[in-house]
Amino acid sequence: MANERDIGDHYDHRQEPRDGSKGAGRGTDVRQRWSAVAGRLAAALRSMALISRTDGVALMLAAETSELRAVGGSTAEGLELEYAQQAEQVGPAQESVAADHPVAVGDLERRDGPGYARLARRAAPVRAVLSVPVHLDGGVIGALNFYRVTPCTWTRDQIAVGEHLADTAADLLVRLAAHSASDDHGWP
Questions:
Q1: Going from the N-terminus, what domains does the chain have, and what CATH number goes with each?
Q2: Running DSSP on this structure, what letter comes out for residue 18?
Q3: For residue 135, what are the β-bridge partners?
């Protein structure tokens, strides 16, 4: 069962409705369904980390206000990276989404630019980040962030793998949304 301490599923309970409704009266059922969705997403992100040979992968999606929001991470460090980018409103994810192309940062601590020093402190121990835009229906809906705890130079092959995995993440989000909306417990 997911909870705030369980780093296995990285479900962001801080984004639930503040009135405690958890879904307009559906209560426990909605919470269990979203925990299941979060668990599937976390498992997929862990698999993407293995495929990409990185220390982890995390996902940010655009909110209605067009700000990026932390959605999930394969590790606690990855989720903290996302929270840091969300709080600072600066980072490779924001740059990637704005430019609609991958942004590779070899070392957050050495990156010039407003806010990067604060981001590097908040995101520690993460040092290197590759952010790739996630596309759906022709638009950018977020960023998939690959990270390492040591500085590195991201290669063309790693960027290409990141782009393929971002496409996979978009497909997964569609399936998870359809699954969570269905009344049946099987995949659509």
A1: 13-181 (3.30.450.40)
A2: T
A3: 140
Q: pLDDT tens across 88-127, in order?
A: 999 999 999 999 999 999 999 999 877 899 999 999 999 9
The residue among 79, 61, 53, 37 whose CA lies nearest residue 133 is 61
Calculate the alpha carbon distances from 15 to 23, 27, 75, 122 in Å.
Answer: 12, 15, 18, 20
| Local structure of 58: helix, strand or coil | strand
What are the tens digits of pLDDT across the range 46-68? 999 999 999 999 999 998 777 89
Separation of CA 165 from chain center: 12
Q: Which residues contact 103 (CB under 8 A, 6 or more apart)?
A: 92, 93, 95, 96, 130, 131
C-beta separation of 145 from 57 below 8 A: yes
Gap between the Cα atoms of 86 and 70, Å rounded: 7
Within 10 Å of residue 138's Cβ, how many Cβ atoms?
Answer: 5
Length of the chain: 188
